[in-house]
Amino acid sequence: MQIPDALPFPFEFQLPRSALVIIDMQRDFVEPGGFGESLGNDVSLLRAIIPSCQQVLAAWREAGGLVVHTREAHAPDLSDCPPAKRQRGNPALRIGDPGPMGRILVAGEPGNAIIPELAPRPDEIALDKPGKGAFHATPLHALLQQAGVSHLVFMGVTTEVCVQTSMREANDRGYECLLLEDCTESYFPQFKAAAVEMLRAQGAIVGWTATSAQLLRALA
Ligand code: C5J
Questions:
Q1: Does ipTM surpass 0.90 in this model?
Q2: What pTM does this model have?
C-alpha cells in the first residue's frame, strides 16, 4: 500500500506489518467537565478530531489491521509517577488529586477511560502508560515486535506532547511512523502546527504526515 501524497514523500506500508496507534483519547483530556477543561483548556478543539478518528478506526478494523490504544495513567499508589512529574509547576490539580471525573490520571478512574466513541475492542491492545511516550515503561515495543510490526500510523492527543514523544520513541526503535494531521490535536493550535512541521522536516526525520482521507484511499 502507498500514500503517494504523504509528506515529505510517499509513505509505503504493508497492513500486516502495521499498527494504528491511538494516543490518550481519554475522557479527562477530551470531554467537557474533565481535567483538561478544569485547567482552562478548550476541549472542543480536541473533540473536533473525533469523527475523522472514528472513520480511520472503522476502516482500519475493517481491513483487519492491528490497533493499539494508550491512556496516560498511573497506578493508584502513584509508585510509577516520578515526583518531578507530579510536582512540576503550580497546577490547580495534580496527578492523583480528586478531579471532576475521579483521581487525575489514575488508572481505572472514570476520567481515565478512553472516550466511548473510540472505545477499544477486547481483541485490541489497550495500554496504560505512565510517561508521555507510549514506549516508556510499557510492553509496547515487545508486543509490536511479537506481531512483526514495522510501520505505525498515529492519531490522538496532544500533538506536541504525548503524540510527538511517542513518535520520537518509535523512531529510535526503528519504526516507520506516519501522523494523520486531522486525527491529532493540541489545546494550542500553534504547537500542533509546529510539531507537524518538525516531525516531517529534514527528509522525514521523525516520520511522515498525511490526512485521514489519504490513508482511507490507500486502505480502500
Ligand atoms: C498528553 C499531556 N496525552 N498533554 N498528555 O499529551 O499531558
A1: yes
A2: 0.98
